[in-house]
Amino acid sequence: MRFQFNAVLAAAAVLLAGGASAQEVVVKIGHVAPTSGPIAHLGKDNEMGARLAVDELNAKGVTIGGKKARFELLAEDDAADPKQGTAAAQKLVDSKVNGVVGHLNSGTTIPASKIYSDAGIPQISPSATNPKYTRQGFKTAFRVVANDEHLGGTLGKYAVTQLKGKAIAVIDDRTAYGQGVADEFEKGVKSAGGKTVGREFTNDKATDFTAILTSIKAKKPDIVFFGGMDAVAGPMLRQMKQLGINAKLMGGDGICTGELPKLAAGAMADEQVVCAEAGGVEGEQKAGMEDFKARFKKKFNADVQIYAPYVYDAVMVMADAMVKAGSPEPAKYLPVLAKTEGFKGVTGTISFDNKGDIKNGALTMYTYKGGNRQQIAVVR
Prior knowledge:
The protein is 44% helix and 21% strand.
């Protein structure tokens, strides 16, 4: 008799569990960034931004199509390597994720985007700025930051019109991001009537820049632009100081991080570095960004490096499209995501154009004083 009673209880538990799961929808959000290698600090920053968004969505008890949604984060490491990036993308597709936020680098985002497109899975990059990403004709590709044409072009004009650069040298790390932003910077300099005195290149794992910096020093530059990431820019600043190059160092969002002063190890003079971050908040929006940074610090006991707020917004925009579509199925919410207009994020207002690029993307210009990043201006 006891056995029969236990069997009845077990059957009831199975039925209850089935009923509960029928009222719940699991939403898998994939995230890819380099959480190993030289820019792992940026990749971990991104992943924490995604984790904060997922945890907050679950705490809110979001419902999709009348069912309570339970968001899960599937995080992968691409080590900023294109081959590892495509392997990570395929793994997420095989795991049947509902959407992907990533990758961090243009060099991994672009090859991975075809895999997501072929699978019909929406992808929002929080930081890939190479224009090619959204110009391949993929309806699944979106980004929440301004692209290199805007980023590099604006920096190039700023170098001439605001910093009064007369002899401007350009270095890039030959990645899709670094070379792309340097090309657009050079175009921006020329369109503003400025002059570049040399173009050199390195790679994203280099630590010795003596040869290229010696060549540049002979041209007496007042500004050196570097297209690449902070892990290379830091040692470059040290060697510029050793060689007696007193030029300003400019760069895009890849160098515009909280970690740069540490990586430069005391070689950065006040206001020597001028960089821009794709995105920017003004006026009332500043309070939202400060609140985000406080929540981030409380949860992870870490300061935001750079892209975490964009990752957070990307997850939230994706979830918002699912709620509006009444479904987390990619084919159903993708058309709604594409029509996103006026979404209020912590990084500003998000609307997508017909390519998947953010409309009217802002840029924030920064410099460094006393080892701390300071905002100069928000430009559009």
